[in-house]
Amino acid sequence: MATEGQFEYESVLCVKPEVNVYRIPPRASNRAIRAADWKLDAPDWTGRMRVTARGKVAYVKLEDKISGELFAQAPVEEYPGIAVETVSDSSRYFVLRIQDDNGK
């Protein structure tokens, strides 16, 4: 039996051929996140970003720009929300919450 959303078409909303990913430390307080606190000259990963949609959920997918291999993805059910968060000092950068299969 098919589950809800299983047969829904996935459409590509946006492709950015080169994006940088930075590992940011856990928040120590409720203070807003600032991109200026990151090591912007030393990204932890560089690749392609594709934003797709299936049903009412968008997916931010980070992929290797040559092989297309998936590095990470984050489902975005609402914005603003848990998966995507703005930074206080830039409209160019944002925080993407990514969890592995173990919830880390």
TrEMBL record:
User: Its GO CC terms?
Assistant: clathrin vesicle coat; plasma membrane
Keywords in alphabetical order: Cell membrane, Cytoplasmic vesicle, Membrane, Phosphoprotein, Protein transport, Repeat, Transport
Biological processes annotated in GO? endocytosis; protein transport
InterPro entries (UniProt xref) = NECAP_PHear, PH-like_dom_sf
Q: Which residues form the NECAP PHear domain?
A: 9-104
Localization, per the record, is: Cell membrane; Cytoplasmic vesicle, Clathrin-coated vesicle membrane
Pfam families this protein is in? DUF1681
Q: What role does this protein play?
A: Involved in endocytosis.
The family this protein is said to belong to? Belongs to the NECAP family.
Name of the molecule in the record: Adaptin ear-binding coat-associated protein 1
Source species of the chain: Lates calcarifer
